[in-house]
């Protein structure tokens, strides 16, 4: 779902409808939002071709050779800028899974979105239950996306903003409190309530400020990574095993369909936003160059490029809301962690609008950015090289969820975890490469999740027994 | 087993590979990508035909070889390392006491060997010297065969290291190194015809 968010965000600008995943809140909770950020489309904000059509100066028109090389180098840099946060998020999730047993315990609790238990007597029943669970989850995602689109269509912005705010509040305070509690339990650290309250309060408030308003870039990125990791951990804990794998697979397919098929709620959302020439509510988006937003706020330059749009190629002519990802639809507020707002919460957008004047064409800018190959870094006036890339938090969440599930479920084997980790990075690489080639919005989830799933099952069932025997006898191949 | 064993073996097995990574690869994002997703080789091979290629075939060979080496080493070693942190007794049933250290040493040797084999193999392909390719494959088989002698470590670890040193020399010369370059290096003099590898 998160993927969809990304897609949505990216897609807001893009023609391809972003899978509604983004928009719909995860059953688990806020996760949806964050996921949305990453969902589907290559986050780098590849704006759909429509955006490019709308904006004349979209594509870099250099020499073909230079273009290719520039694209390659540029793309490489952006891929690395995404590797690091994705790796960090996965490392945090795997470290937590391996050390804190809370997230792998089966308490018998389930999310309301996955009501069917998996500890049944027969395999057939288990399979059926997991299929039903996945179906319910996907339907919830689709419904939430529709709700989001409707809310947006009928201009209920406050509802959306409030939802985003509540989501991030829940995530930053409640889930991190639970996480901290479990970590203390694992390491047997004695802690008094007053200190804990002070810590959680500070963590949460600074997080809200960083994500929804202004803050140092690194801190903002750190918070986004942390809430993505928290969300992924929640999913790992509360989704039963077969359901989780099924959901990952189905969401990737959904992401693919939603981004590449012409009809979809996200597409409607994007088109509506374009018609109105409004920025879409920023969803959860991880940006590697959000600092310019701060600058923008300070300077109030109208011509600052939109983060979505990046590009040197496209001169930014109007103020754009930074990362205006599509509004994050959080779904049932208490259930969905608010991570959706990859930092660009509605407050932030409001701030921007207040300071910069009405933000325009978020989708357009997004499209433009999405059009650009490789992650679209926000356009800087001066520096072509310092573009950032954006990735929806939904993608972070799903990637981490896959790797976390692999490390939790695979017989305690590190090879499987490592294989899934590399598979996801390769998928991300390929996605960005395809983005550079096709120059239109692409879903970010499918390739990575597909590789991740294939590698997980293949490694766990084929490679692991083999490597165990080799290691036992110290044979090296 | 203690944390000392864990860290010691981890550094033995992965230290050189990671220093190679940090000092030669981490700065260039393109190389990092090739390290992880070696399939980009084909795309890059096409580009390296052009005048200004972002990465040369030799760099690609080196990076791809290092990537293979790190992955192979990680897959061999990582479960052993994680077990070394937990409780247990090494060699309880008459097995060798040197299990961890020899695993680490073999992993290190294999990682570096993969790097050198990558360089030599690519060079052989570039220059269409098929005997090089056959030799690399045979050496790989020999090294794996030697590891079958474990736990007779004296029969496996020293020969593998000898082969590794020979491969290092071969890779150095096949990637354009020469005694002249080495002497320049020692005397810290710059040369016009510096070969890059």
Automatic annotation (TrEMBL), chain A:
Residues 322-337 have a biased composition (Pro residues). Residues 43-56, 344-362 have a biased composition (Polar residues). It comes from the Eukaryota. GO terms for biological process: amyloid-beta formation; calcium ion homeostasis; melanocyte differentiation; membrane protein ectodomain proteolysis; Notch signaling pathway; protein processing; somite development. Residues 312-321 have a biased composition (Low complexity). Coiled coil: none annotated. The chain crosses the membrane at residues 79-97, 131-152, 159-179, 191-210, 222-239, 245-261, 418-438, 444-463. Homodimer. Probable subunit of the gamma-secretase complex, an endoprotease complex that catalyzes the intramembrane cleavage of integral membrane proteins such as Notch receptors. This is Presenilin. It comes from Esox lucius (Northern pike). The gene is PSEN1.
Automatic annotation (TrEMBL), chain B:
Belongs to the APH-1 family. GO terms for biological process: Notch signaling pathway; protein processing. It comes from Esox lucius. Keywords: Membrane, Notch signaling pathway, Transmembrane, Transmembrane helix. Component of the gamma-secretase complex. It is found in: Membrane. The chain crosses the membrane at residues 60-78, 98-122, 129-149, 161-182. One of its GO terms (cellular component) is gamma-secretase complex. This is Gamma-secretase subunit APH-1. It comes from the Eukaryota. It is a multi-pass membrane protein. Pfam families: Aph-1. Potential subunit of the gamma-secretase complex, an endoprotease complex that catalyzes the intramembrane cleavage of integral proteins such as Notch receptors.
């Amino acid at each position: 779902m998160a993927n969809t968010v990304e897609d949505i965000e990216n897609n807001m600008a893009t023609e391809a409808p972003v899978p509604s995943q983004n928009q719909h809140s995860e059953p688990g909770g806020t996760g949806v939002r964050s996921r949305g950020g990453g969902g589907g489309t290559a986050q780098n904000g590849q704006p759909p071709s429509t955006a490019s059509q709308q904006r004349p100066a979209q594509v870099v028109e250099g020499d073909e050779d230079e273009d290719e090389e520039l694209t390659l180098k540029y793309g490489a840099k952006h891929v690395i800028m995404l590797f690091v946060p994705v790796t960090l998020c996965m490392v945090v999730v795997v470290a937590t899974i391996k050390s804190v047993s809370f997230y792998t315990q089966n308490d018998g609790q389930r999310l309301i979105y996955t009501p069917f238990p998996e500890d049944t007597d027969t395999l057939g029943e288990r399979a059926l239950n997991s299929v039903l669970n996945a179906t319910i989850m996907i339907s919830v995602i689709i419904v939430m996306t529709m709700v989001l689109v409707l809310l947006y269509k009928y201009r209920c912005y406050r509802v959306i903003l409030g939802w985003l705010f509540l989501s991030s509040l829940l995530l930053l305070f409640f889930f991190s409190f639970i996480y901290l509690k479990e970590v203390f339990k694992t390491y047997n650290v004695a802690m008094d309530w007053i200190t804990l309250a002070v810590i959680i309060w500070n963590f949460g408030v600074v997080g809200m400020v960083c994500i929804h308003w202004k803050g140092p870039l690194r801190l903002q990125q750190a918070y986004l990574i942390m809430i993505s990791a928290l969300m992924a951990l929640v999913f790992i804990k509360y989704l039963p095993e077969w359901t989780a794998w099924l959901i990952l697979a189905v969401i990737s397919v959904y992401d693919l369909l939603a981004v590449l098929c012409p009809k979809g709620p996200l597409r409607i959302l994007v088109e509506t936003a374009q018609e109105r020439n409004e920025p879409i509510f920023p969803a959860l988006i991880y940006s590697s160059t959000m600092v310019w937003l701060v600058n923008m706020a300070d300077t109030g330059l109208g011509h600052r490029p939109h983060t979505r749009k990046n590009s040197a190629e496209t001169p930014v002519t109007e103020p754009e809301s930074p990362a205006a990802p599509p509004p994050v639809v959080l779904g049932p507020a208490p259930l969905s962690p608010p991570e959706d707002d990859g930092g660009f919460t509605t407050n932030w957008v409001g701030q921007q609008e207040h300071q910069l004047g009405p933000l325009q064409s978020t989708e357009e800018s997004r499209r433009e950015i999405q059009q650009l190959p490789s992650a679209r870094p926000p356009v800087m006036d001066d520096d072509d090289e310092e573009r950032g890339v954006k990735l929806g938090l939904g993608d972070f969440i799903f990637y981490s969820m896959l790797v976390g599930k692999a490390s939790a479920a695979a017989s305690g084997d590190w090879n499987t975890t490592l294989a899934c980790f590399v598979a996801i990075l390769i998928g991300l690489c390929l996605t960005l490469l395809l983005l550079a080639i096709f120059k239109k919005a692409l879903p970010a989830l499918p390739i990575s999740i597909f590789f991740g799933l294939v590698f997980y099952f293949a490694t766990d069932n084929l490679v692991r027994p083999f490597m165990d025997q080799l290691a036992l006898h110290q044979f090296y191949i | 087993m203690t944390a000392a064993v864990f860290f010691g073996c981890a550094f033995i097995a992965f230290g050189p590979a990671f220093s190679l990574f940090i000092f030669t690869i981490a700065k260039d994002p393109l190389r990092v990508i090739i390290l992880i997703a070696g399939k980009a080789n084909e795309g890059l091979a096409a580009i390296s035909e052009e005048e200004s290629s972002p990465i040369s075939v030799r760099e690609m060979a080196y990076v791809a070889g290092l990537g293979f080496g790190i992955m192979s080493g990680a897959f061999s070693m990582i479960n052993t390392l994680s077990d070394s942190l937990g409780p247990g007794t090494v060699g309880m049933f008459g097995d060798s006491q040197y299990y961890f250290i020899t695993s680490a040493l073999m992993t290190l040797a294999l990682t570096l060997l993969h790097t050198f084999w990558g360089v030599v193999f690519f060079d052989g392909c570039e220059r269409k010297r098929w005997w090089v390719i056959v030799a690399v494959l045979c050496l790989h088989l020999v090294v794996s065969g030697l590891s079958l002698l474990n736990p007779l470590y004296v029969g496996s670890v020293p020969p593998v290291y000898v082969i590794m040193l020979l491969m290092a020399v071969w890779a150095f010369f096949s990637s354009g190194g020469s005694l002249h370059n080495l002497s320049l290096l020692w005397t810290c003099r710059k040369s016009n015809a510096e070969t890059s590898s």
